[in-house]
Write a sequence for this structure.
């Protein structure tokens, strides 16, 4: 400190050398991570989610005021057309009351038939509702981070829903945060069927807003406006979850517009249907039965 | 004594400001905003922050800072881990090598250099993403994002310039 000039002169070359070594080391570390990631080493996924876990509370805190502001703007906008909305809801209510009657009749009929056939009822399902804390729709991945993880009972592969329909599935889990892979992501492949005809297909994301329908069963002729729902094949998603609507057919393939508006996701429900599925789920293997 | 401790703390916090503000930019850039298409077209504010600080205070934004910020960005965005870390390290290298060029240059020249470096970073990102994970980039989207990033640079640069004047002129 007494003679800063001299110190600087003496240590400068050493410092430059150290800096170069550090730089080379860091480049090596980045490339190493990329290589490990390509080999799908679990350590990379764990590292990624550890980072996310560490910053999740901060993201949650930053996001809350923005959420509140957005909700206030929404409320103000709704006040503007409250009369129109009211009229629309009345009409809808009339229509739904009719449907309620139909549903009750069907429910009764269903119950009677189940009793006759002794069909096992569906297992009870549990769900977790979590706030979206990061929207990471970069150029490569369509995913969001939610503020719930393994400690809330979330596991890899579980379906993610909003009231409009299917959002996607849980792709990575941390302790208090998880990444939900959207239907539109390149790595998303969901078995679906056309609601009217029950023709099977796979809906493949390609990072565009409108995923493609592939592996259509032969002879299937999807029409514009057909509703697409999950088929339940493969055991990851239960059957019947609304997915989207066919908006393009023809030579360039069949494309589906999802029911969910991925740009306005606020809270997502992660449902545990008790389906193990074909995906590697991080649940422990079933215990061997004791006795007998 | 207590005063000295606080003075030291104050100094350390100020010196950490470039890296900390870039980390904050990385966090802010993924906070969900109810704007359609925003998340796909959002300008790369992390690159802007990193570029600004490496040009103006390279002593306070070392290579490991670029590496850490890049890793955080990768983890949050779901990009292949190491991708942005590598790109930011290369950006760091490119600026530090040309450091004499940047010293005392007019703003528009720095802005033009940013445009060049951002374009280079985008190309390297696309190549590495393809090589490492077979992810091909929608080119139109990428070009739009690049244009937005370059366009917004003066605004964020002005904010960072003010931050630098307030907190880092004396230190």
């Amino acid at each position: 400190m007494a003679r800063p000039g001299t110190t600087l002169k003496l240590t400068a070359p050493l410092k430059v050398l150290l800096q170069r070594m550090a730089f080379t080391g860091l480049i090596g570390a980045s490339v190493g991570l990329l290589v490990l990631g390509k080999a799908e080493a679990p350590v990379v996924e764990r590292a990624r989610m550890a980072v996310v876990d560490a910053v999740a509370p901060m993201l949650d805190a930053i996001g809350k005021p923005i959420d509140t502001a957005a909700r206030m703007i929404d409320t103000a906008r709704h006040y503007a057309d409250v009369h129109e909305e009211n009229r629309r809801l009345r009409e809808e209510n009339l229509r739904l009351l009719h449907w309620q009657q139909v549903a009750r009749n069907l429910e009764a009929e269903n119950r009677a038939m189940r009793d006759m056939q002794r069909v096992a009822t569906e297992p009870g399902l549990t769900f977790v509702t979590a706030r979206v804390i990061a929207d990471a729709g970069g150029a490569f991945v369509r995913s969001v981070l939610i503020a719930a993880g393994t400690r809330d009972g979330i596991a890899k592969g579980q379906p993610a829903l909003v009231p409009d329909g299917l959002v996607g599935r849980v792709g990575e889990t941390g302790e208090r945060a998880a990444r939900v892979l959207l239907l539109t992501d390149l790595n998303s492949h969901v078995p679906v069927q056309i609601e009217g005809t029950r023709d099977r297909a796979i809906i493949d994301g390609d990072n565009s807003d409108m995923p493609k329908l592939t592996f259509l069963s032969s002879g299937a002729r999807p029409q514009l406006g057909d509703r697409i729902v999950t088929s339940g094949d493969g055991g990851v998603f239960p059957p019947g979850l609304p997915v989207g609507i066919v908006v393009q057919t023809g030579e360039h393939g069949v494309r589906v517009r999802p029911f969910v508006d991925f740009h306005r996701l606020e809270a997502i429900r992660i449902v545990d249907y008790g389906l193990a599925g074909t995906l590697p789920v991080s649940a422990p293997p079933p215990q061997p039965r004791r006795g007998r | 004594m207590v005063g000295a401790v606080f003075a030291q703390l104050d100094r350390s916090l100020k010196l950490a400001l470039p890296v900390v503000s870039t980390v904050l930019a990385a966090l802010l850039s993924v906070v969900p905003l109810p704007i359609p298409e925003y998340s796909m077209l959002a300008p790369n504010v992390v690159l802007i922050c990193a570029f600004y600080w490496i040009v103006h205070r390279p002593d306070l934004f070392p290579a490991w800072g670029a590496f850490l910020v890049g890793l955080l960005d990768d983890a949050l965005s779901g990009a292949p881990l190491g991708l942005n870390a590598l790109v930011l390290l290369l950006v760091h290298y490119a600026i530090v090598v040309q450091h004499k060029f940047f010293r005392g240059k007019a703003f528009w020249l720095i802005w033009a250099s940013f445009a060049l470096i951002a374009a280079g970073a985008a190309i390297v990102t696309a190549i590495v993403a393809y090589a490492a994970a077979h992810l091909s980039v929608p080119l139109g989207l990428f070009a739009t994002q690049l244009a937005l990033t370059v366009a917004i640079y003066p605004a964020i640069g002005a904010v960072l310039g003010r931050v630098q004047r307030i907190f880092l002129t004396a230190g």
User: Anything to note?
Assistant: Residues 126-272 of chain A form a domain with the Thrombin, subunit H fold (CATH 2.40.10.340). The radius of gyration of chain A is 26 Å.
